[in-house]
Write a structure and sequence with these properties.
Elements lengths: L1 E5 L5 H14 L4 H8 L3 H9 L6 H11 L3 H4 L15 E5 L3
Antiparallel strand pairs: 1-2
Length: 96
């Protein structure tokens, strides 16, 4: 027996914008964040533009630097049709 489980979709552009705001609000520059994470500034700009996601270790470091939780860095899509759209569900085996 299978059951539907909702898998939320991250709004990459809005999440990146939020990250950029948090960096600015905490007084960091992109260059400083890049130096701390040991990546190029272009990588940080890709995060801010929503073109890529931070790796897990970078995500945790960002949370520490910005004083937030992982969930605070992501914005999920809220389209009204998302709950009914089969693409956003994954089928898992019900092991009961």
């Amino acid at each position: 027996m299978y059951k539907n489980v909702y898998i939320p979709e991250i709004d990459t552009v809005t999440s990146g914008f939020r990250l950029g705001e948090m960096i600015r609000d905490k007084g960091y520059s992109v260059a400083e964040i890049a130096l701390i994470l040991r990546v190029s500034p272009q990588t940080i700009y890709k995060y801010i533009r929503g073109e890529s996601y931070p790796k897990a270790d970078h995500l945790l470091a960002l949370c520490h630097l910005l004083g937030c939780d992982v969930k605070d860095l992501y914005v999920y899509r809220t389209d009204s049709n998302i709950d009914m759209d089969e693409r956003f569900y994954t089928h898992i085996l019900n092991v009961q």
